Amino acid sequence: xxxxxxxxxxxxxxxxxxxxxxxxxxxxxxxxxxxxxxxxxxxxxxxxxxxxxxxxxxxxxxxxxxxxxxxxxxxxxxxxxxxxxxxxxxxxxxxxxxxxxxxxxxxxxxxxxxxxxxxxxxxxxxxxxxxxxxxxxxxxxxxxxxxxxxxxxxxxxxxxxxxxxxxxxxxxxxxxxxxxxxxxxxxxxxxxxxxxxxxxxxxxxxxxxxxxxxxxxxxxxxxxxxxxxxxxxxxxxxxxxxxxxxxxxxxxxxxxxxxxxxxxxxxxxxxxxxxxx
Length: 277
Hints:
One of its GO terms (cellular component) is plasma membrane. The chain is of the alpha+beta class.
């Protein structure tokens, strides 16, 4: 019994040493790419094995791990998967992920992983994944026709509540440094308008101070503001008027539909009475 326990301890120690021999390194902690350009994410690994599998995973902001592509050590190169491809160099122990035609939804954390048996002497199925620390990919939107503008919105219920919306500025513009503790702001967000096939950058800033003005808060920004760019929800609501001719046409169409239903019902009733005779 003691001999069996001793052999088990030796086997476990061998397995641990064997599993610790493999390492995965991702030297790029963060990388940025312009939209529609190609980006390469680097990954190296250390192993003494001849047969193994390598993987790339994507982790978006929703936190789930999404499988992208895999590479077997006994294959020279894996075929591209959509916009994803790998540059596998077995001798150099590297597998770089290339993303072509980068899209905004490509922004995520990317993990390189190594798959090998945890213990050479164990049975089948004892496999584990060894991950790198990950690379964060940021995609800068391609704003083709920037037209910077600022809009100041005031709440109809409170005269002191005000929000500034800055939009249509280039991605390369520096974001303002708001030192006023009474003013809050968001990071730049990409607004995608699919119906117009265009994109826009946007930043929101707001405050409940009475004298909050957009231009005073963002003095260094190359935006413009005027009285014409003010947006008041109450004024918009009051200025909205319905078209009387359009309302009359809608009522007329509804009346015709009701009349058609009555005629159809009468004809159906008369047909049933004739058949019953």
